[in-house]
């Protein structure tokens, strides 16, 4: 399952939970609760990004969060520190934080990237146009703009000496984005993955989710919508989600996990994300190889003239199986050679005559399964010249054949 980061705002004024955990004891208790609910990481912030929140000094910020980080790290929790200040990041890492989550991607504090580079910590580079969540929200193409910005921040982080393995990307839902931008970004998340590192998604209780609820619903009523968008993010390739209510999102992600576990790997619809490439962080869908309109003359049919004169058969095949690696290796060995498939189909059509197109389709399916990486073949056989005494367009028979039997 993807990681769930539980949000712990040790602030008097965060937008949905401000003031709840300002006391270190209450904050620690809440973190323990989130861990019990299934949080993998606790993301601790001491300064609110809410519009109009009072800026605080790094010293005040540290006074709020360091005692909490120290205790939670002592208890073995994985901690991320949500800060835009380099000195706070350094102090938090020294206190046991393993991730620095900077909502400005290192742009607010010019010392941030170098400060992280000097530690072993990971860094979250989030897309925003500054700390002000309402700032400047015009985009040509929000997905491509966010992607380009994250590439630029990644390159700045690399130049500062942070290796790629320590970089996490975040498109910054709700930060300098209109409601439609957020939905577009969620739909286009697959284009943000593949930057070389995992993607974190934080939709939790954000204003755009309010669109889904009755007017006047408050921020804490957005948890079901958060669970839904976190699940969508997971399906689009996110490696982690950052949420306030851990229980609801963990349940949603477990539902996804159970469903995925129940589906034969290779029978997933191709638009499903099937693999998170640990090495590159890029996402690969399980490819489907199709060859349509393979033509060959055959002598199949129940009528004597069909057996005598033959006719044209047209075949479409769609192949699925262990083909995902090819997209990474660029090696023909890791997929199926469609020219060889087409030749094999022709051999079957030109081979021993049978009465029924069903039998022919089945034989073609079996021939496809002789290619070692192919596990499923969908075959459609067209018989456009079938002897039918009325005008008609086409006759087809389709069959699915899988290793271990016909589907
Ligand atoms: N959102 C908030 C704060 N920090 N950090 C990351 N990486 N991604 C986010 O989307 C994000 C963030 C907004 O405030 P909140 O702490 O109340 O959710």
From TrEMBL:
Keywords on record: Folate biosynthesis, Lyase, Magnesium, Metal-binding, Transferase
A cellular component annotation (GO) from this entry: cytosol
Residues of the Pterin-binding domain: 2-254
CDD domains xrefs: DHNA_DHNTPE, DHPS
Keyword Transmembrane: no
InterPro entries membership: DHP_synth-like, DHP_synth_dom, Dihydroneopterin_aldolase, Dihydropteroate_synth-like_sf, FolB_dom, GTP-CH-I_C/QueF, Pterin-binding_dom
GO biological process annotation, one example: folic acid biosynthetic process
Name this polypeptide is given: 7,8-dihydroneopterin aldolase
Source species: Candidatus Agrococcus pullicola
GO MF annotations in UniProt: dihydroneopterin aldolase activity; dihydropteroate synthase activity; metal ion binding
Extent of the signal sequence: none
């Amino acid at each position: 399952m993807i990681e769930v980061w539980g949000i712990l705002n040790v602030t008097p004024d965060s937008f949905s939970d401000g003031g709840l955990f300002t006391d270190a004891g209450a904050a620690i208790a809440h973190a323990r609760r989130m861990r019990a609910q299934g949080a993998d990481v606790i993301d601790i912030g001491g300064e609110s990004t809410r519009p109009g929140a009072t800026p605080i000094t790094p010293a005040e910020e540290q006074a709020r969060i360091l005692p909490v980080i120290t205790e939670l790290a002592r208890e073995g929790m994985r901690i991320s520190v949500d800060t835009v200040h380099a000195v706070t990041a350094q102090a938090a890492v020294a206190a046991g934080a393993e991730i620095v989550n900077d909502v400005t991607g290192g742009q607010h504090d010019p010392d941030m990237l170098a400060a992280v580079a000097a530690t072993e910590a990971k860094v979250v580079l989030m897309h925003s146009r500054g700390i002000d969540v309402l700032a400047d929200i015009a985009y040509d193409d929000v997905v491509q703009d966010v992607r380009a910005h994250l590439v630029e921040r990644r390159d700045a982080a690399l130049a500062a000496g942070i290796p790629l393995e320590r970089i996490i990307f975040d498109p910054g839902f709700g930060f300098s984005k209109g409601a439609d931008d957020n939905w577009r970004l969620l739909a286009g998340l697959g284009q943000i993955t593949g930057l070389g590192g995992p993607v974190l998604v934080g939709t939790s209780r954000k204003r755009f989710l309010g669109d889904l609820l009755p007017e006047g619903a408050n921020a804490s009523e957005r948890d079901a919508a958060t669970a839904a968008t976190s699940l969508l993010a997971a399906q689009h390739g996110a490696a982690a989600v950052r949420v306030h209510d851990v229980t609801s999102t963990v349940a949603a992600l477990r539902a996804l996990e159970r469903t995925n576990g129940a589906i034969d790997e290779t029978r997933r619809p191709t638009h499903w994300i099937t693999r998170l490439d640990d090495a590159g962080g890029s996402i690969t869908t399980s490819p489907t190889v199709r060859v349509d309109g393979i033509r060959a003359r055959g002598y199949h049919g129940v009528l004597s003239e069909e057996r005598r004169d033959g006719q044209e058969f047209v075949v479409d095949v769609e192949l699925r199986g262990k083909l995902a690696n090819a997209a990474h290796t660029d090696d023909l060995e890791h997929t199926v050679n469609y020219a060889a498939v087409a030749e094999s189909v022709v051999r079957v059509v030109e081979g021993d005559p049978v009465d029924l197109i069903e039998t022919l389709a089945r034989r073609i399916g079996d021939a496809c399964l002789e290619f070692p990486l192919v596990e499923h073949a969908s075959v459609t056989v067209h018989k456009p010249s079938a002897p039918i005494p009325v005008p008609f367009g086409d006759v087809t028979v389709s069959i699915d054949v899988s290793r271990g039997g016909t589907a």
